[in-house]
Design a protein that fits this description.
about 160 residues; alpha+beta; Nuclear Transport Factor 2, Chain: A; six-stranded mixed sheet; 4 helices; about 15% strand
Length: about 160
Amino acid sequence: MKRLFFGILLASSLPVMAMGKMPQTEGQSNTRPAVASCQLVVQDLNEKKLSRQINETQLVEILQSLNTLRQLPDYFVTKKQARDLGWRPGSYFSRIPALKGKSIGGDHFGNYERRLPQNSWQEADLDYRGNKRNAKRLVFSTNAQQRYVTVDHYETFHQVPPCQ
């Protein structure tokens, strides 16, 4: 009788084992751990690594746009687009009507100093207010979901953990 019971038990569990999943027991979950919200990730990064140097609301907006649309928000323009609208390096966006409220972003980042892993990178200004550009940038790879913040013009980079 015991052999019959164990035979039935073994036969019924084989299809489950063959699919690579073990039966779920009470209190266990087969789901992946949840990814933290971008708001929490950015708050933590800003507080612990960046000495509260960045505009959290803007960085959250950018990360969410990259997550959902795989592109920067619409207020970003590449350097070429900015030049076509009258900008020259060193001039202020705030003095060019077509560029008011815009920021530079979406251009290739070369990673020539090899401070980041090998990848295809793009960059975007952070906290730009229309006058002189500051040293804060988000450097990101849309294909690998890797993102880094620098607040010292590429001297150091702080990885932004995945978020949603």
